[in-house]
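Cross-posted from the bioinformatics board.
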Amino acid sequence: MGLKIGASLDSDGSDMAERGGGSSGGGPTLVWKAVSFAVGEAPILKGVSGSVSGGQVCALLGPSGAGKTSLLNVLAGRSATRGDTRISARVEVDGAVIDPVSRGGQ
Ligand SMILES: Nc1ncnc2c1ncn2[C@@H]1O[C@H](COP(=O)(O)OP(=O)(O)OP(=O)(O)O)[C@@H](O)[C@H]1O
Ligand SMILES: [Mg+2]
């Protein structure tokens, strides 16, 4: 099983996406585009895009504070726009758009 790099983030949260590429069977393909996450005046994620194809292993690389956990929380539906937290994202599972933000925190 090969290691694929799905996305990497630089120290200010900008996208440095480098795709592993290719596709293989064994599960849905997850694609995220233009993921932004900000708390107050602080942008944490700025237009991050990436993908993981079914059956692939994905490594999310970035220095401490780059936003790895923040990105995974958004994709997993653990974050929501509320208070001074603002999130926007386009997420697709096998081409179908899902909205992890609207159910964030549930
Ligand atoms: N709810 C929040 N409110 C304010 N700042 C936040 C919030 N969530 C994350 N941050 C800030 O966003 C930045 C990214 O945090 P995050 O935990 O996503 O980084 P990380 O890449 O997972 O770091 P590490 O490698 O240390 O786990 C940090 O500066 C963090 O303090
Ligand atoms: Mg983390």
